[in-house]
Amino acid sequence: MSLPHAILIALLERPSSGLELTRRFDRSIGYFWSATHQQIYRELGKLEAEGHIRALPAQQPARGQKKRYEVLPAGRAELGRWTAASQDPKPHRDAMLLRLRAAAVVGTAGLEADLRRHLDLHRLQLAEYQEIEKRDFPPGNDSAQARLQHLVLRAGIELETFWTQWLAEALAELPDAQPPVADDRP
Amino acid sequence: MSLPHAILIALLERPSSGLELTRRFDRSIGYFWSATHQQIYRELGKLEAEGHIRALPAQQPARGQKKRYEVLPAGRAELGRWTAASQDPKPHRDAMLLRLRAAAVVGTAGLEADLRRHLDLHRLQLAEYQEIEKRDFPPGNDSAQARLQHLVLRAGIELETFWTQWLAEALAELPDAQPPVADDRP
DNA sequence: GGTTCTTGTGCAACTAGTTGCATAATCCGT
DNA sequence: ACGGATTATGCAACTAGTTGCACAAGAACC
After folding, report:
1. What is the pLDDT of residues B63-90, one digit of tens each?
2. Which of A2, A78, A83, A171 is the best substitution to test chain B (most B C-beta atoms within 10 A)?
C-alpha cells in the first residue's frame, strides 16, 4: 500500500500533472516503485478526495487539460507518519530464480536466450544508474539530503551489479551455451 | 502468473499434500516465491481441474483428510514450456528504498528502529541460507542439477549480504543514531 | 466420555496492480 | 478548414495476491 506515498514524495519534490508524474515514474521514482499512468490517475483522485493533495487552480478544469497537483500539509504529515511506521519486508518473488530451479528438474533447454536478454537489460539499467550517479552526485556534496538520495541510488547500482554477475554465472552453468560476451565498457 | 509453476516444481521434487506444500513454501521454495496456504489450495484445485496434477488415490476423500498430489505428464510439459518461454523481468517495488527517499524530504525521524529491525531480519535470513549451503552443498558435488540448485541458493546469499551491508550503511547515515552493532559471528 | 488443541482443508471478500480501451484537446501538414 | 498524429486524462474489467474466517477429523487432556 505504498503507491500513494510514492506519489506524495514525487509531488513534494516537484508539483506535477498526471502525465509528468507518469514520466517521472518511468525514470527515477519508478526504479524502485513502478506504476502505470492509470494507477497514478486513480491514486491522484483518491489523494485529492482525502485532502492530501490539491489541484493547483487552472483555467478550465476540463478533460484533456493539464492539471497540476501540490501536496497539502495533511499529505506531508501522512508521508511522515508512513515513513516512520514499522513495516514488515514484503516476501520476494523472482520468476528467473524460479525458472532456474525448474531447470534443475526439467532441464535447461531454451533458457539461454532469455538469460542473455535479461543480462543485457540489467547491464543497460546499471549503465543508466552509473550515468545518473556521475551527473547528480559528484564527489564533495555532503548535504544530508544528497547523502540519503545517493544511498538509495547506490542500492540500485549494487543490485544491478549483482544481477549482471549472477546471470553471467548462470549462463556459464548451461551445458551447451557459449560463455556470455564480456562487458568491455571501460 | 507463476504460482502454479512454483507448485509444479515443488510437486516434481516430491509429491505432497497441501499442508506439506505450505511448509515447503515457508522454507526453500518460498525464499523466492512466497505463497500462503489459501493460495496453494486454490491453485491445487485449478491444476487438478486442468489435468496438470492429480490426487493420489486415498482412503476417504473427505474434508480434513490428507490428500497428496503428483504431477502428470501434461504438468511436466507445461513447466518445461514455461521455463523456456521468454518473460520480461517484473518491475521491482521496495518500500524501504522508498522510505529512505521520503526521509530525504520529510526527515529521518522514527526510521532508525525499523532499519535496525530489518537489518536483524536480513542477517537471520543470511545465516539460514549459509546453514543450508553448508549442509546441502559441500564442496565436490558437481552434478549439473546440484550446481543449478547451488546457483539459486547463492543468489539468495548474495542478495541478503547486499541488504545487510546496505542497511548498515543507511543506519550510519542517520543524523543522531548510533552505528549498527557489528555482526560478530565468526 | 466430553472438552479443548492441533492439524489439514477450504471459501469469501478485499486490495493492489495490470490490460485494454475511450475521450478530449492540441499541434501540424496540406 | 480538415484530418490525422500526439498529448493528456480517465473508466472498466480482469488477474493476482492477501486477510479473515469456517469447519472437519483426530490427539491429548483429565
Report:
1. 456 778 999 999 999 999 999 999 998 8
2. A83
